[in-house]
Structure formats: C-alpha cells, structure tokens
Specification:
Elements (H helix, E strand, L loop, with lengths): L1 E7 L3 H17 L5 E4 L4 H7 L5 H9 L2 E6 L14 H11 L4 E7 L12 H4 L3 E7 L11 E4 L5 E4 L6 H16 L4 E6 L5 H13 L7 E6 H10 L6 E4 L1 H12 L11 E3 L5 E3 L18 H13 L4 H16 L2 E2 L9 E2 L2 H11 L1
Parallel strand pairs: 1-2, 1-3, 3-12, 5-10, 8-9, 8-10, 13-14
Antiparallel strand pairs: 4-5, 4-11, 6-7, 11-12
Bound molecules: nicotinamide-adenine-dinucleotide (NAD), 3-isopropylmalic acid and manganese (II) ion.
Length: about 350
C-alpha cells in the first residue's frame, strides 16, 4: 500500500509525527507500506505558492491512501481565497472524489468524566456521522461578494445537491447502518430549504432498497439539541456537508474532546484520506501539547478501509484503549487523578502499548 502523508500546518506536523511512529511499529512487524510526504495548505503555499500544488496532487492521485494532519492558521487568513490553506483541503477532497466522510463518535469508557456532559448521558456512546463532503454550499456556484441592485455590497453562497450526489451518500449511510444497529437518521432543514427537502425525498426513496434499516428524519436544529440531550438515541446520522461539519464538532465533545474524533473521507472504491476532525489548533501549535489520538485513530481507519487490514486497525485501536486505561491524558482530556502527558509522550505510550 502506498500512503501519502500530509503533515499540514499548526499542530499537524506534531500529531502526524506520532501517527508515523505507530505506522513504523506496524511496518517493523511486517506491514507492507511505502510512504511519501508532501505539503498541503499553508505549508504548501509557503513552499510552492499554492495550497494544493502539482507535486502534492500527483502523489495524492498515485497513492492508495492519504494521511493528513490539519491545515490553516491565522497568518494565511488574509490571503486571496484561492491561496488559502482551507482551499487546498477542499481541492484535494474534490480532486480525489472523497464524497463520503465518516466521523465515528465513540466514547471510550475511561473518558466518561472528560466529557462536559454527565457520564450517564454519554457512557456507551457509539454514533457514526456520515457527512457528504464534496457538494452543498461548500462548492455551490454562484458564490462571492458583489454589489447588488441596491448598490450595496452583498455576500452570497449557493446550497445545491444533485440527485446522484444524494443517492450515493445515502447508499453509504444505509450500508453502514446495516452493519450496526440498523438505525439511520437523516438530518435536514426541509421545513425551510428546498435543497434539503429534496435531500429528504431522495433518501426516503433509497430507503426502499434497505427495508431492514429504520429510517428517521430530523431537522438540523433539533438534531443539534438532541445530540446533547440524549445522544445515545442515534446510531448512524447522514447529512450534508455544512450540517455534518457542525454536528460532528458538536459530537466530538460527547467523546471527551475534539482531540479524540478521527475521520475517513472515501471515494467509491475505498481510496481515502484520513484526518482528525479537528483543525490546526494555532493556540497550542509548536508546544507539544496536542492530543495525537484522533490522528492515530484515523490511521486505524486507514488500515481498515483502504488497507483492508482489520487486524492492524484493531491493534492500533486496542493500543489507544490501553493508554487510556493506563491513565495517560493530554491536556484536553486531563482530569484529576490521571497522568498528564505531552503529545510526544502520548505517542511514546501508544508505541509501548503496541
Ligand atoms: P481547531 O479544531 O483547530 O481548534 C479548536 C479548539 O480545539 C482549540 O482550542 C484547539 O486548541 C483545540 N484542539 C483542536 N485539536 C486539538 C488536539 N488534537 N488536541 C488538543 N486540543 C485541540 O479549530 P479552529 O480554531 O476553529 O481552527 C483553527 C484552524 O484550523 C483554522 O485555520 C481552520 O480553518 C483550520 N481547520 C482545519 C481543519 C482540517 O484541516 N481538517 C479542520 C478544522 C479547522
Ligand atoms: C473539517 C474542517 C474543514 C471543513 C475546513 C477547514 C475547510 O472544518 O474538516 O471539518 O469545513 O470541512
Ligand atoms: Mn470542521
């Protein structure tokens, strides 16, 4: 398997360094992987003047899987929009056709008290958020800022979804639900937005092919509320790009910290990019404070989905469970009575557990 590693910006290189150490252990035990490293985001802009340069694109297309840290930082926020790190991330997702973003929010029992919610609300939590990743208001045209008929400046973006885009993500979500508790909740704003009323209609039609899955629908505002009121009512949730972005950050706090939520972004053939759901955390970058576990768990997802190597994935996930059971905690999941460690010390612990 060929893996392209994109450290990115901010805490990206720090968390990727720990995931790479995990990969090295697997390799020394016989896992066959070749790795390349390339820049994405601000790092790519600094080196090549573009957030998704040709060299990165060529390597990404040739790879079986991509492992990404995170991109972005305040020093890039005033660049022209096409040059910004976030554009590089959107470009690689679109270029590789990574339309299916899986974000599993699982609470490890040891972190029941790290969540800001009551332990009884979150204990045993296991939700899969299926977020459509290459459509919606993120990519819809027209977009921009112009002077309107009244002579006033006006910003505009366009929410749009084609039938085929909705159908393919719905199939991913129904198939995932079939392998789990067979419950799928489709999240929309059909009471206001035509695009998402259409989404609801198509998901309902796809449901006919999955009679064993119980489909429900929920408005996104209610879903945001239900996620903190009673998150365990959910099994799989499927939604569009922007609602999924927001709901998955919200769901991360049910697991203790955004530093715990991995993700897989897949195409039709399980080629994928794997990244933590969080960003480049400029406030703690360069301080060896970041939690590398979401990135290490993203590597486990890479091994499972693109590597088709369930045993290696489970081995990595078990090592993460072991370090949590041993009491190792980065600052974001620290509580009294546990052992506060740095990013690299957390990596040491995972390597030892492996
Ligand atoms: P963020 O996720 O980077 O940070 C939000 C908060 O969570 C911060 O307080 C941060 O310190 C904390 N945090 C995040 N990851 C952590 C970790 N692993 N360990 C401990 N604490 C962690 O979100 P933001 O501050 O809104 O965005 C910062 C930059 O990251 C922006 O430029 C944004 O565009 C970018 N971003 C990138 C991605 C990505 O690359 N996939 C995702 C989200 C945001
Ligand atoms: C994420 C991020 C990205 C998104 C940004 C950085 C473009 O928030 O991966 O969740 O909105 O998809
Ligand atoms: Mn996000």
């Amino acid at each position: 398997m060929k893996i392209l590693i994109l450290p990115g910006d901010g805490i990206g290189p720090e968390i990727i360094a720990q995931a790479t150490r995990v990969l090295d252990v697997l390799r020394s035990d016989g896992l066959k992987v070749e790795t390349e490293t390339a820049p994405l985001g601000g790092a790519a802009y600094d080196q090549y003047g573009a957030p998704y340069p040709q060299v990165t694109q060529d390597l990404a297309r040739a790879a079986d899987a991509v492992l990404l840290g995170a991109v972005g930082g305040p020093q890039y926020d005033t660049l022209d929009r096409p040059l910004r790190p976030e554009r590089g991330l959107l470009a690689i997702r679109k270029d590789l056709n990574l339309f299916a973003n899986l974000r599993p929010a699982i609470l490890y029992p040891e972190l029941a008290n790290a969540s800001t919610l009551k332990p009884e609300v979150v204990s045993g939590l296991d939700i899969l958020i299926v977020r459509e990743l290459t459509g919606d208001i993120y990519f819809g045209q027209p977009r921009g800022v112009h002077v309107n008929e009244a002579g006033e400046r006006e910003g505009f973006n366009t929410m749009r979804y084609s039938e085929s885009e909705i159908r393919r993500i719905a199939h991913v979500a129904f198939k995932a639900a079939q392998k789990r508790q067979k419950k799928l909740c489709s999240v929309d704003k059909a009471n206001v937005l035509e695009t998402t009323e259409f989404w609801k209609e198509i998901v309902t039609d796809v449901a006919k092919e999955y009679p064993d899955v119980a489909l429900s629908h929920m408005y996104v505002d209610n879903a945001a509320m239900q996620l903190v009121r009673n998150p365990k009512q959910f099994d799989v949730m499927v939604t569009g790009n922007i609602f999924g972005d927001i709901l998955s950050d919200e769901a991360s706090m049910l697991t203790g910290s955004i530093g715990m939520l991995p993700s897989a972004s897949l195409d039709q053939n399980n080629k994928g990019m794997y990244e933590p759901s969080h960003g480049s955390a400029p406030d703690i970058a360069g301080k060896n404070l970041a939690n590398p576990l979401a990135t290490i768990l993203s590597l486990a997802m890479l091994l499972r989905y693109s590597g088709n190597n369930e045993a290696a994935a489970v081995r990595v996930e078990n090592a993460v469970k072991a370090v949590l059971a041993q009491g190792y905690r980065t600052g974001d999941i620290f509580e009294a009575g546990t052992n506060k460690v740095s990013c690299s010390e957390m990596g040491d612990a995972v390597v030892a557990a492996l």
